[in-house]
Amino acid sequence: MPFTHIALRKGKSPDFLHALSDAVHQALVEAFEVPADDRFQMITQLDEDTLIYDRHYQGGPRSDDFIVVRVTAGRQRALAVKDNFYKRLADLIHERTGVRQADVMTVIVCTGPEDWSFGHGVRGVVRNPHQET
Question: Each residue of 106-115: b (16+ CB within 10 Å) or e?
Fold first, then answer.
């Protein structure tokens, strides 16, 4: 189960944010081995002075549309999977929002199952006692 944090500058419309969210989720499902119903995201919109980035470092030039997508994943993926995900993510964000691929930075952080609590203050997977198994 990945948790995705998307950071960008303030000022985008709700429609833009929904399109961005959908693009990120679609890329995770299509290219990062994530089930379709596994969607956990946080979108943070920041002021100009709180989203600080070099406009020309590796992969620029970057514009005011710069977006950082940080995926915290519960397991490692193969390098080929990561490479496909990076490309698919940048392409889908561009297709859905118009943001250029050069303005999409992606960071993947992998953790172990002991680093997650899905609810109830319990480490690991929590089974809903009311859910059919």
Answer: bebeeeeeee
* Predicted confidence (pLDDT) at residue 72 exceeds the cutoff of 60: yes
Mean pLDDT computed over 112-130:
80
The pair of structure tokens assigned to 13 is 């419309």
Instruction: Name the region of 56 (left: φ>0; alpha: ψ -120 to 50; beta: rest).
Output: alpha
The domains of the chain, with CATH numbers, are 3-123 (3.30.429.10)
The neighbour count for residue 128, using CB atoms within 10 Å, is 9
Whether the per-residue pLDDT at 80 is higher than 50: the answer is yes
Distances (CA, A) of 28 to 31, 98, 128: 6, 19, 25
Secondary structure of residue 12 in the 3-state scheme? coil
Please enumerate in sequence order all residues whose Cβ is within 8 A of that of 74, keeping only pairs 6 or more positions apart, or say none: 1, 2, 110, 111, 112, 113, 115, 116
